[in-house]
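Supplementary Note 3. Input sequence used for the single-chain structure prediction.
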Amino acid sequence: MGVLPRREALRISLERELDLVEIAPQANPPVCKIIDYGKFIYEQTKRERQQKKAQTHSTLKEVRFKAGTDTHDFDFKTRHAREFLEEGHKVKATVMFKGREILHKELGEVLLQRFIDALADVAKIDQPMRMEGRFLGVMLAPDIKKPVKKKEPKPAEAGDGTTQQEEAQQSVEEQ
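The predicted structure, written as discrete structure tokens, is reproduced below.
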């Protein structure tokens, strides 16, 4: 409509039974639109809700080890940490030292380094290793750049399209 005096813009909005809404007050002259204000607010809140849905919410999951954690326990906890990272959560791995174990911090460092190496394909270091009292901890975050590809099971078929069961049955019939 171009540049109009304020009174004329108000008159036009009243004729159309709409509202005159100031969009950019800092512009010279200020920019206004003739719209249904209720509908405008509704659409704006709807867009904000959609943006909130699109946001990823990551929580912090913790995996605790002891200085003498065995390989099975280590593998079990590493598998859980991998699942957490694939879901988009951050993982904090801590090694707890009891009593005089604190004198052998290198055992905890070796354990955490093994943990980091085991998850290097799906995670990156968010906070490096550091001591927090009797705990040695490291924080890992999911690495978005490295997508995890899940392997699909292949059907058990021979090259000519027959299954293993059919092959076994054919060999029995031949004998």
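Confidence is low (pLDDT under 50) at residues 148-152. Residues 60-142 form a domain with the Translation Initiation Factor IF3 fold (CATH 3.30.110.10).
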